[in-house]
Amino acid sequence: MYRWHLPEPNAIDVSGTSDCSSAKSRTVVVLLGWLGAKQKHLNTYAELYTSRGFHAITFTFPMAEILSYQVGGKAEEHIDLLVNHLADWLEEEHGKNLVFHTFSNTGWLTYGVILEKFKKQDPSLMGRIRGCIVDSAPVAAPDPQVWASGFSAAFLKKHSVATKGTICSNESGMKVLVGSKEVVEPKPAVTEAALLLVLEKFFEVVLNLPEVNRRLSDVLGLLSSGQPSCPQLYIYSSADRVIPAGSVESFIKEQRKAGREVRACNFVSTPHVDHFRNDPKLYTLQLTQFLEDCVLTCCKRSQ
Hints:
alpha/beta, Rossmann fold, 7-stranded mixed β-sheet, globular
């Protein structure tokens, strides 16, 4: 379920004289994939980090495991394997650190389960997390509409309206305001609208099952109030058709109110989990600045 990516040789300072290079070589970025993501989809993101001298781990779930999810079942067993691997890596040598990069609600919830397991296994592991980057999430409470949109997008892929950003105002769709501009949101096709309706009714039932609701509440509660005291970066978009921008901004506000160091970037018109492909320059700039200003500074201080 996970794959380790080594830093590119030309990104490593072989002389050992650079504090920055040393900090990078002691840091692994854990990329937690979105619903339906495959290893090949995360490879591009891993290269962003390995080309800068970081280690990277890419973690994905097969769709079948998500669909057949049971509390404490096979999906969580895979997270256990990842947690144990990370704990072993951290214990090999003093001064090693983690950065998490999550995608959509699936990656975000996976991060919450990992934090939960860290706390149970060895609470000191929480202090080794130097930063968290959240792409296209979160929604702070179980929402049937959000879950329906996410699964519909995963099933239909490029045919889903969730993959479309804002479009010109002379095309068919629903007019909305993004910032100070009037744009048009594309409407779902009839088949997708029907699928969304069925999925929403389905998740209205599933998310209220006592065992599922309790498990989600525990994980989401930890993510809201029990995150490690590391810097956070939220990347989102007003045009996201799966995760409402308002939900992300509300969560950011609460994190800041709790005293967290939070950065955020609204890409405005890019689709769900598609910000890097649509605007690679801005995405790379946000990651680079976050790592240099927050993560590497923390790593240097810990040595």
